[in-house]
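name: query_chain
kind: protein
chains: 1
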Amino acid sequence: MPGFGQRFRVVAIGCLLGVVSLAAIAAVVLLVVVSVPDGIGLLLTVAAASIPALFYAGVVLRLDRYEIEPLRAVIACFIWGAVGAILFSLAGGLIFQGLAEGILGAEAAGLASVVIGAPLIEESFKGVAILAVLVVARDEFDTTLDGLVYGALVGVGFAMTENMLYFGQTYLESGIGEFGVLVIARAVLGGFGHPAYTAVTGAAIGWARGRYGRGFSRILMPIVGWSIAVTLHVAWNGGLVLTTAFLGENVALLEIVAIQTLLVIVPAVLVLYAIARMSGRHELEILRTELRGEVERGTITHAEYLTIIDNSLRTRALSTARDRGGRTLRGKQLAFFHTAADLAFRLHHRGRGEAPQAVHTARDDNDRQRLQALRGELATAGMPPLNA
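structure:
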């Protein structure tokens, strides 16, 4: 059991991180409010940036159907993107701009900052959050799909705050008409840009997470993923510049963004979706393999096992729970599925070579007890046995 001194240090570090986080959030809020000194404009700006962000976050979270990501990790990734990555990227951008001006001159430095500086700096600071989740909450980081989801959430948060700054400035300088055009361009047509870039980094880190110290590829792959994310970001920013130069200054913004969306974002999103589907099938195979032993152990019944690994049966069970007990009972049924998945992924990692720890064995036992408790609560609430 940790001593008083160790507990005090943990509490002190937690308090310090909390204070720093609150200060950073306050700084970003102040930055947005000061940049839009107009009540109506501020309200429109916040709504136009946050509503699409919440929609995109919902879409991203639905990609992982077998295991819900822990709320603390989801919120941490989103907030880092919306706050931490924004602040560090702004500071890094100013430094890059100053250095580039001294070497290239003001005009060339501005172009270099947009095309090269912003992608390098932003993708680096967004990627930090995914590495932090891997280190701090490794047990909640199981597969390529988990990394993809965490990365996309960081990107969603980053895009939300960045959009607020752009939207507010446009509203003040050009009025509601140009504001609406920019909202469509950035939040609709280009809405999956930042999530897609950072999802590539996250997917690469998620793949490397499963290598368990075997081979240089576990170090190389995250670097490759980050490089691809930067390249996509460069292609987007540089493409906007080149398309504008090629078509002329009078070309409509929506036309430029639509072209770039088709060339950069749509292919990236399609590839990421294919990766998500393949990783989802891999997760399903893990459940099939690892939970067979839990059936033999008596943790779950054979009928429960069949329901967990069959999407149509899972959906039917969740629908029945909602019909009989509303969101509360559906939540308990979902918790049953996700607890079984957590147990299966932990067993999978140890079976593949991850060093076992005492805390993992304790979590295994806790998950098995929770499954038993949830089964009783579901039965008491009137849920029929799964696959009955």
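note: Residues 61 and 149 are 7 Å apart (CA to CA).
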